[in-house]
Write a structure and sequence with these properties.
The protein has 91 residues and is of the alpha+beta class. It contains 4 helices and 4 strands; from the N terminus they run ααββαββα. It is globular and about 35 Å long.
Length: 91
């Protein structure tokens, strides 16, 4: 709904229930961008994707099932994981 309202069309969509991304694969994917923003409840964690932050990022980015949390959105410069009103600019 948010993306439709903003006129944003994804290049690809993955179904997290069918395509699992474990912590090893998630880290490889996240390192393709300089920064990651992880929304969890009312808090947002924003970190550079360097090895110094690896454990903190993976702890916040991975769900209880061991799969990368959804939504996970890759832009030209960063990753956005999880939902938080601040991340998406909701009012």
């Amino acid at each position: 709904m948010y993306f439709e309202q903003k006129g944003i069309e994804p290049k690809s969509i993955m179904d997290a229930k069918k395509e699992k991304i474990d912590s090893r694969m998630a880290w490889e994917l996240l390192q393709t961008r300089k920064r990651v923003h992880i929304g969890k409840g009312k808090r947002v964690l924003s970190l550079d994707t360097d090895v110094a932050h690896k454990e903190e990022i993976l702890t916040a980015a991975m769900g209880r099932s061991g799969n990368l949390r959804a939504p996970a959105i890759k832009t030209k410069r960063a990753f956005f994981i999880g939902y938080n009103d601040e991340i998406y600019g909701a009012q």
